[in-house]
Amino acid sequence: MTMIIFLDIDGVIATSKSYKEYPDKDDLLDRRCMQALNYLCKTLNAKVVISSTWRMEGLEALRKKFEFTGFKGEIIGLTPNLIDEKLYARRGTEILRWLEQNKYEGEYIVLDDEIFDIKNDIAEFRIHHIENGFRKRGLTIQRADKIVKYVRENTPVPFSLEDRKKEEAESEAKREGQYGIWYKLWDAVESFYYSLDRIHLFKEIKYAIQRIKRGWSDRDVWSFEGYLAEVIRDGLKHLKQNKYGVPTRFLKDGDDGPQNVRIAERDWNATLDEIILAYDTALKIMNGDVYAPFEGEDARGKEKKFLNNMHELGHTELKFLTVAEYAKMKEGFKLFGEHFFSFWD
Fold first, then answer.
1. Which one of 168, 252, 308, 321 is separated from 197 by 20 to 30 angstroms, measured CA to CA?
2. Are residues 245 and 142 in the same domain?
3. What would the mean pLDDT of 213-220 be, rounded to a whole number?
4. Which domain holds residue 189?
5. CA distances from 181 to 172, 185, 186, 237, 259 (A)
6. What pLDDT is recorded for position 198?
7. Contact 7, 111 (CB under 8 A)
8. What single DSSP character describes residue 156?
9. 311 neighbors 82 (Cβ within 8 angstroms)
10. Cα within 13 Å of Cα(255), Cβ side
11. Residue 216 CA to its chain's centroid (Å)
12. Average pLDDT of 273-280?
């Protein structure tokens, strides 16, 4: 049976290295990553559906670009753009819609370098995160080989779970009988190694050291807007609760008498609340908890249509910000700029 690979492009087969090597911009795909994709398609008998925002270029244009870079497989489609070229729809939802529209019930996997808008909709074992630490290399042959191994180990087998457990137990007993205590020792070492790999212990240590030394890590800049929004929101919450004064611009006529200071503190707290709300709202948009409102002609109608599509897929909790809520967020951003030099204590 044919497998489907839902493919992101940036960070997977278009890397920072390929952008530097192909400055003519007719060929922005990494040929080495394309070889790895060819290996995946051939080994897994897979065909490709583009889930990247590159799909806006159109199917034929992408086929030509892939062919030019050495792709030997077949691109059979593009995931739908559920909100008319706006980028607030979760990619996982668009993948589910493609599966529904094409009545596809076979096996599939997802290759992407950012999974925050996928993991809530797609089963974890189907998602292969080309981690941002690999951004300079994208999809490598080594990474592709791991994906093949994982897929083969996690693809359902045509016999019962009890039979599978029995077969695994017999195989385990056979290996233990052959190697005795050495097998148990190796199994313990291997289990420990893979537990470290799963929690990315060494990477977490590296990122922690980077944050201590410079205030941000390599991982933070992969989605810097989200990192900054969280830092600003939480930092201003702390400032509001622990400050000992107010900016002089809030003191009417420079009067620092007790009553005037109380009024100034009230106004400064209200301003901080507006800014905190703005960045909290921005984080909700980035996390896919709410959507920014449509703009232009029949905006409310488009929102209603989009929500109906989402509800059909079972996402009944989704909602759009009101125009007033969105304007309030923008006003909070404006206040942040106006009072930038007042965030001290």
1. 168
2. no
3. 87
4. 161-199
5. 13, 6, 9, 56, 79
6. 46
7. yes
8. P
9. no
10. 9
11. 19
12. 96
Q: Does position 157 have pLDDT exceeding 50, yes or no? A: no
Is 148 in the same domain as 14?
yes
DSSP label of 229 = H
Residue 146 counted as domain residue: yes
Kindly report, residue by residue over 20-44, the tens digit of the pLDDT: 555 555 557 888 889 889 989 999 9
The size of the chain, in residues, is 345
> DSSP labels for 17-76?
HHHHH-TTSS--S-HHHHHHHHHHHHHHTEEEEE-SGGGGG-HHHHHHHHHHTT--S-EE
| 206 part of a folded domain | no
Amino acid in position 26: D
CATH number at residue 22: 3.40.50
Does position 317 have pLDDT exceeding 80, yes or no?
A: no
The model carries a pTM of 0.51
Instruction: Let me know whether 7 and 113 are in one domain.
Output: yes
Q: Is there a single domain that holds both residue 88 and residue 191?
A: no
Rounded-to-integer distance, Cα 156 and Cα 158, Å: 7
- 14-17 long-range contacts, CB within 8 A, separation 24+: 14/54, 14/138, 15/135, 15/136, 15/137, 15/138, 16/135, 16/136, 17/136, 17/137
To the nearest whole percent, how much of the chain has pLDDT over 70?
77
> From CA 341, how far away is CA 302, in angstroms rounded?
40
Q: Which of 59-68, 83-92, 154-163 has the lowest mean pLDDT?
A: 154-163
Q: What is the pLDDT of residue 235?
A: 95
Question: Given this model, what pLDDT does residue 156 score?
Answer: 47
- Residue 211: other Cβ atoms inside 10 A: 13
Count of domains in the chain? 3
